[in-house]
Amino acid sequence: MPFFFDPLYLIFSMPALLLGLWAQWKVQSAFNKYSRVRTISGVTGAHVARRILDSNGLRQVAVEPAEGFLTDHYDPAHRVLRLSQKVYQGNSLSAAGVAAHEAGHALQHQDGYAMLQLRTAMVPGVQVGSWLGPIIFIVGFMLAGFVGQTLAWVGLALFAAVAAFALITLPVEFDASRRAKRLLVGQGILAQQELGGINAVLDAAALTYVAAAIQAISTLIYYAFLLMGRQREE
Fold it and tell me: In whole angstroms, what separates CA 64 from the centre of its chain?
Protein backbone atom coordinates (compact mmCIF):
# COMPACT_ATOMS: atom_id res chain seq x y z
CA MET A 1 0.00 0.00 0.00
CA PRO A 2 2.44 2.62 -1.25
CA PHE A 3 0.56 5.78 -0.37
CA PHE A 4 1.11 4.97 3.30
CA PHE A 5 4.52 6.51 2.63
CA ASP A 6 3.33 9.20 0.25
CA PRO A 7 5.32 12.41 0.94
CA LEU A 8 2.19 14.31 -0.03
CA TYR A 9 0.55 13.02 3.13
CA LEU A 10 3.20 14.80 5.17
CA ILE A 11 2.34 18.06 3.44
CA PHE A 12 -1.29 17.66 4.47
CA SER A 13 -0.72 16.25 7.94
CA MET A 14 2.51 17.79 9.23
CA PRO A 15 1.07 21.16 10.36
CA ALA A 16 -1.70 19.41 12.32
CA LEU A 17 0.77 16.85 13.68
CA LEU A 18 3.11 19.55 14.92
CA LEU A 19 0.20 21.47 16.43
CA GLY A 20 -0.95 18.29 18.16
CA LEU A 21 2.48 17.64 19.65
CA TRP A 22 2.72 21.23 20.82
CA ALA A 23 -0.79 21.06 22.29
CA GLN A 24 0.06 17.87 24.19
CA TRP A 25 3.20 19.50 25.57
CA LYS A 26 1.22 22.62 26.43
CA VAL A 27 -1.50 20.79 28.38
CA GLN A 28 0.98 18.61 30.27
CA SER A 29 3.14 21.63 31.04
CA ALA A 30 0.18 23.68 32.29
CA PHE A 31 -1.25 20.79 34.29
CA ASN A 32 2.09 20.01 35.93
CA LYS A 33 2.76 23.68 36.70
CA TYR A 34 -0.59 24.31 38.37
CA SER A 35 -0.70 20.91 40.05
CA ARG A 36 1.94 22.43 42.33
CA VAL A 37 -0.28 25.41 43.15
CA ARG A 38 -2.64 24.57 46.02
CA THR A 39 -6.12 26.03 46.02
CA ILE A 40 -6.61 28.63 48.74
CA SER A 41 -9.44 26.63 50.28
CA GLY A 42 -7.59 23.32 49.94
CA VAL A 43 -10.52 21.56 48.23
CA THR A 44 -9.78 18.43 46.20
CA GLY A 45 -10.95 17.74 42.68
CA ALA A 46 -13.45 15.20 43.98
CA HIS A 47 -14.89 17.81 46.35
CA VAL A 48 -15.11 20.39 43.56
CA ALA A 49 -16.99 18.02 41.30
CA ARG A 50 -19.31 16.87 44.10
CA ARG A 51 -20.11 20.41 45.13
CA ILE A 52 -20.93 21.54 41.60
CA LEU A 53 -23.06 18.49 40.93
CA ASP A 54 -24.98 18.68 44.21
CA SER A 55 -25.62 22.41 43.93
CA ASN A 56 -27.17 21.80 40.50
CA GLY A 57 -29.44 18.96 41.53
CA LEU A 58 -27.22 16.12 40.30
CA ARG A 59 -26.76 14.14 43.50
CA GLN A 60 -27.43 10.95 41.54
CA VAL A 61 -24.27 11.44 39.46
CA ALA A 62 -21.43 9.51 41.10
CA VAL A 63 -17.85 10.80 41.28
CA GLU A 64 -15.31 8.00 41.06
CA PRO A 65 -11.50 7.73 40.80
CA ALA A 66 -10.00 6.41 37.56
CA GLU A 67 -6.62 5.03 36.58
CA GLY A 68 -4.21 6.86 34.28
CA PHE A 69 -3.05 10.42 33.62
CA LEU A 70 -5.73 12.91 32.51
CA THR A 71 -8.22 10.11 31.87
CA ASP A 72 -10.95 12.29 33.36
CA HIS A 73 -14.35 12.04 31.67
CA TYR A 74 -18.09 12.11 32.21
CA ASP A 75 -19.98 8.95 31.26
CA PRO A 76 -23.51 10.03 30.25
CA ALA A 77 -24.71 6.44 29.83
CA HIS A 78 -23.99 5.50 33.46
CA ARG A 79 -24.22 9.01 34.95
CA VAL A 80 -20.74 8.75 36.40
CA LEU A 81 -17.99 11.35 36.53
CA ARG A 82 -14.58 9.66 36.61
CA LEU A 83 -11.49 11.58 37.69
CA SER A 84 -7.86 10.51 37.42
CA GLN A 85 -6.09 10.04 40.74
CA LYS A 86 -4.18 13.34 40.57
CA VAL A 87 -7.43 15.17 39.97
CA TYR A 88 -9.62 13.16 42.33
CA GLN A 89 -7.25 13.44 45.29
CA GLY A 90 -5.39 16.61 44.35
CA ASN A 91 -6.10 19.99 45.95
CA SER A 92 -4.39 21.99 43.22
CA LEU A 93 -5.68 24.49 40.68
CA SER A 94 -5.15 21.87 37.98
CA ALA A 95 -7.30 19.36 39.83
CA ALA A 96 -10.04 21.93 40.49
CA GLY A 97 -10.12 23.07 36.86
CA VAL A 98 -10.28 19.59 35.34
CA ALA A 99 -12.90 18.40 37.86
CA ALA A 100 -15.07 21.44 37.22
CA HIS A 101 -14.74 20.95 33.46
CA GLU A 102 -15.97 17.36 33.69
CA ALA A 103 -18.80 18.45 35.97
CA GLY A 104 -19.65 20.92 33.22
CA HIS A 105 -20.33 17.98 30.90
CA ALA A 106 -22.76 16.55 33.45
CA LEU A 107 -24.56 19.91 33.50
CA GLN A 108 -24.70 19.85 29.71
CA HIS A 109 -26.34 16.43 29.92
CA GLN A 110 -28.83 17.72 32.45
CA ASP A 111 -29.68 20.74 30.28
CA GLY A 112 -30.07 18.63 27.13
CA TYR A 113 -27.25 20.55 25.44
CA ALA A 114 -27.80 19.78 21.76
CA MET A 115 -24.16 19.46 20.72
CA LEU A 116 -23.45 16.98 23.52
CA GLN A 117 -26.48 14.92 22.52
CA LEU A 118 -25.33 14.92 18.91
CA ARG A 119 -21.78 13.93 19.86
CA THR A 120 -23.04 11.12 22.10
CA ALA A 121 -25.29 9.81 19.33
CA MET A 122 -22.35 9.78 16.92
CA VAL A 123 -19.99 7.80 19.17
CA PRO A 124 -20.91 4.25 17.97
CA GLY A 125 -20.63 5.19 14.30
CA VAL A 126 -17.41 7.09 14.81
CA GLN A 127 -15.81 4.22 16.71
CA VAL A 128 -16.41 2.04 13.65
CA GLY A 129 -15.62 4.68 11.06
CA SER A 130 -12.32 5.71 12.65
CA TRP A 131 -10.71 2.35 11.87
CA LEU A 132 -12.97 0.88 9.18
CA GLY A 133 -13.16 4.02 7.04
CA PRO A 134 -9.44 4.18 6.16
CA ILE A 135 -9.34 0.42 5.51
CA ILE A 136 -12.29 0.54 3.11
CA PHE A 137 -10.81 3.59 1.43
CA ILE A 138 -7.43 1.90 0.93
CA VAL A 139 -9.02 -1.27 -0.48
CA GLY A 140 -11.17 0.76 -2.83
CA PHE A 141 -8.29 2.95 -3.88
CA MET A 142 -6.19 -0.09 -4.74
CA LEU A 143 -8.95 -1.58 -6.89
CA ALA A 144 -9.76 -0.33 -10.36
CA GLY A 145 -13.13 0.45 -11.88
CA PHE A 146 -16.54 1.24 -10.48
CA VAL A 147 -16.30 -1.13 -7.51
CA GLY A 148 -13.03 0.37 -6.37
CA GLN A 149 -14.32 3.93 -6.68
CA THR A 150 -17.50 3.07 -4.80
CA LEU A 151 -15.59 1.45 -1.96
CA ALA A 152 -13.22 4.39 -1.77
CA TRP A 153 -16.10 6.86 -1.54
CA VAL A 154 -17.74 4.76 1.18
CA GLY A 155 -14.50 4.78 3.15
CA LEU A 156 -14.19 8.52 2.64
CA ALA A 157 -17.74 9.05 3.90
CA LEU A 158 -17.07 6.98 7.02
CA PHE A 159 -13.96 8.97 7.79
CA ALA A 160 -15.86 12.20 7.12
CA ALA A 161 -18.02 11.27 10.11
CA VAL A 162 -14.84 11.15 12.21
CA ALA A 163 -13.92 14.67 11.08
CA ALA A 164 -17.47 15.87 11.80
CA PHE A 165 -17.26 14.34 15.27
CA ALA A 166 -14.00 16.18 15.94
CA LEU A 167 -15.62 19.47 14.91
CA ILE A 168 -18.73 18.87 17.02
CA THR A 169 -16.47 18.13 19.99
CA LEU A 170 -15.09 21.68 19.94
CA PRO A 171 -18.21 23.58 21.10
CA VAL A 172 -18.93 20.81 23.63
CA GLU A 173 -15.51 21.19 25.24
CA PHE A 174 -15.45 24.99 25.03
CA ASP A 175 -18.88 25.19 26.67
CA ALA A 176 -17.86 22.80 29.48
CA SER A 177 -14.82 24.96 30.22
CA ARG A 178 -16.93 28.13 30.17
CA ARG A 179 -19.33 26.58 32.66
CA ALA A 180 -16.44 25.40 34.83
CA LYS A 181 -14.84 28.84 35.08
CA ARG A 182 -18.16 30.50 35.89
CA LEU A 183 -19.14 27.96 38.55
CA LEU A 184 -15.78 27.81 40.29
CA VAL A 185 -15.88 31.51 41.09
CA GLY A 186 -19.67 31.99 41.13
CA GLN A 187 -20.17 29.30 43.76
CA GLY A 188 -17.24 30.52 45.86
CA ILE A 189 -15.19 27.35 45.35
CA LEU A 190 -12.19 29.37 44.18
CA ALA A 191 -11.20 32.98 44.54
CA GLN A 192 -11.16 35.30 41.54
CA GLN A 193 -7.36 35.56 41.66
CA GLU A 194 -7.08 31.80 41.19
CA LEU A 195 -8.84 31.92 37.84
CA GLY A 196 -5.59 32.64 35.97
CA GLY A 197 -4.29 29.13 36.67
CA ILE A 198 -7.66 27.59 35.74
CA ASN A 199 -7.62 29.47 32.44
CA ALA A 200 -4.12 28.24 31.64
CA VAL A 201 -5.02 24.59 32.27
CA LEU A 202 -8.39 24.54 30.50
CA ASP A 203 -7.27 26.67 27.55
CA ALA A 204 -4.32 24.32 26.98
CA ALA A 205 -6.66 21.33 27.12
CA ALA A 206 -8.96 22.97 24.59
CA LEU A 207 -6.04 23.33 22.18
CA THR A 208 -5.68 19.53 22.02
CA TYR A 209 -9.23 19.27 20.67
CA VAL A 210 -8.51 21.95 18.08
CA ALA A 211 -5.43 20.01 16.97
CA ALA A 212 -7.43 16.77 16.74
CA ALA A 213 -10.05 18.45 14.58
CA ILE A 214 -7.44 19.92 12.24
CA GLN A 215 -5.73 16.53 11.97
CA ALA A 216 -8.99 14.78 11.07
CA ILE A 217 -9.89 17.42 8.48
CA SER A 218 -6.38 17.33 6.97
CA THR A 219 -6.56 13.55 6.58
CA LEU A 220 -10.01 13.78 5.05
CA ILE A 221 -8.80 16.35 2.51
CA TYR A 222 -5.81 14.15 1.69
CA TYR A 223 -8.05 11.14 1.01
CA ALA A 224 -10.36 13.25 -1.16
CA PHE A 225 -7.38 14.67 -3.06
CA LEU A 226 -6.12 11.16 -3.82
CA LEU A 227 -9.52 9.91 -4.90
CA MET A 228 -10.27 12.84 -7.19
CA GLY A 229 -6.81 12.56 -8.69
CA ARG A 230 -7.43 8.88 -9.44
CA GLN A 231 -10.75 9.73 -11.10
CA ARG A 232 -9.11 12.34 -13.31
CA GLU A 233 -6.54 9.76 -14.42
CA GLU A 234 -9.26 7.24 -15.32
Answer: 20
Distances (CA, A) of 91 to 46, 97, 193: 9, 10, 16
Tell me the β-bridge partners of 92: 38
Catalytic residue among 102, 173, 233, 234: 102
pLDDT in the model for residue 124: 87
- Listed in sequence order, the residues at least 6 apart from 90 whose beta carbon sits closer than 8 Å to its beta carbon are 35, 44, 45
Please indicate whether residue 64 is annotated as part of the active site: no
For helices 114-142 and 195-233, the axis angle rounded to 10 degrees is 30
Residues sharing a CB contact under 8 Å with residue 154, sequence separation 6 or more, in sequence order: 136, 137, 140
**Domain extent for 104:** 2-233
Number of domains in the chain: 1
Q: What is the pLDDT of residues 194-234, one digit of tens each?
A: 999 999 999 999 999 999 999 999 989 988 888 887 666 55
Burial of 92 (0-12, 13-18, 19+ CB in 10 A): buried
Sign of CA dihedral 158, 159, 160, 166: positive
Specify the range with the lowest mean pLDDT, choosing from 52-56, 94-98, 105-109, 154-158. 154-158
Is the pLDDT at 2 greater than 60? The verdict is no
